[in-house]
Amino acid sequence: MKKLLPLLLLFTLFISCSKDDAQIVDYTAQNEKEITDFITLNKLNAQRSASGLYYVINNPGTGIQPNATSNVTVAYKGTFTNGTIFDQSTNAGISIGLNQVIKGWTEGIQYFKEGGSGLLLIPAHLGYGSYDYQGIPGGSVLIFEITLISVNQ
Question: Is 145 a member of any domain?
Fold first, then answer.
């Protein structure tokens, strides 16, 4: 039993200090300040949803409005608040199910109708959270300029 106790303690320590647990950070307050500073600096007329997503509707569109499971075609440019582009589509856009994307897109695209355009200002908890993802650092605020080209289903 005396030999088993150190192994049990070591195992417990290993589990409690796992890499995944160590990376979880709450960026809510930091992201909120970063987004509101961006809005002020750029003189945007943004709305805030209950989830913490901010959005700007430049053109609401006139066609069909998607729901959370719609397949849509969207042209977009994704940047950080410093203006660095991390991803963008062609003018033809991409077709994707809104149930297959980050929460910020699932929620945000639904504020537009076909032909609509604007900005989505997405805090980390509605994006990739605390984890790095394909060159996007964990905790990042994501800004998407979007045009909802069509609702396909």
Answer: yes
- Both structure tokens of 53: 């997503």
| Maximum CA extent, the chain | 73
Q: What is the pLDDT of residues 74-107, one digit of tens each?
A: 999 999 999 999 999 999 999 999 999 999 999 9
pTM for the whole structure: 0.84
Q: CA 78 to CA 23: how far, in whole Å?
A: 24
User: What tens digit of pLDDT does each residue of 4-28 get?
Assistant: 333 333 333 333 444 445 568 899 9
* Residue corresponding to tokens 């997405």: 122
Tokens of 148: 């909802």
Structural domains counted in the chain: 1
CB 66 within 8 A of CB 98: yes
Specify the DSSP class assigned to residue 65: P
In a domain, 15, yes or no: no
